[in-house]
């Protein structure tokens, strides 16, 4: 039997975040909607936008990758599976996530689509305009899965954004099966309400059959159960999955388990600068606590603390060590 080596093993889109500053005129010159997020499919358009950005910060990104880095920042042992190409951005992704303390062993793909990237333009008012090119990342399939790596994690964490291709769906089910056979837990984040709309029936089947821990925000969970009532959606989630962790932004979160609902308040923040990555880091705190055997309320408080840190500045990666903040908050 494979020994436990990691607290959490994440699987998701491997994206390089390229964060640069610009003015409103630059957005207008490229017909970009300020504060919006768009998918780019034309590599030439991506390159043109990138060349005009000027100096930028380039870091490994993607929803589940942000979560896994958060687990590592809390002092947890974490690993990540995500597909990049054998190119400059693929090397940047691999170096950066490893430098964050995360095990990353996915071999780069040779030929074909390039590494995914998200061009994030920050205007002087702090607003972020995101332009994402998914590249090779959604092509992850069973060949990239490492059964021994998955079985070595207490929890395997699946990113809903990756659910658009049949190969990725099959990889999710295979990863969940590997984890279950090894006696590990399977966690899923729904990621996005539009993603839920595209795959509602398949998500519900996966959740009922193979997921132990479900993460969703208010819009995602109501989209999953096609209701405008958060309470009704939460009730249905509690029937479908053993543990439902439902976030509600400033209203905090509600954790449903064994017929009980635990409300956890949002951690205070002096000023909200950028909400990007709040859900990713909430999941990081919760999963870290869960893997460490903490009670559910403490897991929720760890999630709230991590989310509060991330929304206090620009960017989806912690600027302060989360383990230090957790100790100062009395959570470690």
How would you describe what is shown here?
- The chain has 332 residues and is of the alpha/beta class.
- The strands form 2 sheets. It has a 9-stranded mixed sheet, with helices on both faces. Strands 3-8-7-2-4 form a 5-stranded mixed sheet.
- 39% of the residues lie in helices and 22% in strands.
- The protein has a single domain (6-14, 62-113, 135-328), classed as Ribokinase (UDP-N-acetylmuramoyl-L-alanine:D-glutamate ligase, 3-Layer(aba) Sandwich).
- A hairpin with a 5-residue loop joins strand 7 (116-122) and strand 8 (128-133).
- The mean pLDDT is 93.
- The chain has helices at residues 24-29, 43-51, 63-73, 88-99, 147-151, 166-181, 193-210, 218-224, 230-240, 278-291, 296-310, 322-328; strands at residues 6-11, 15-21, 37-39, 56-61, 78-81, 102-104, 116-122, 128-133, 153-159, 185-189, 213-217, 243-247, 253-257, 260-264.
Chain-wise SSE layout:
Elements: E1 6-11, E2 15-21, H1 24-29, E3 37-39, H2 43-51, E4 56-61, H3 63-73, E5 78-81, H4 88-99, E6 102-104, E7 116-122, E8 128-133, H5 147-151, E9 153-159, H6 166-181, E10 185-189, H7 193-210, E11 213-217, H8 218-224, H9 230-240, E12 243-247, E13 253-257, E14 260-264, H10 278-291, H11 296-310, H12 322-328
Helix pairs in contact: 3-10, 7-8, 8-9, 10-11
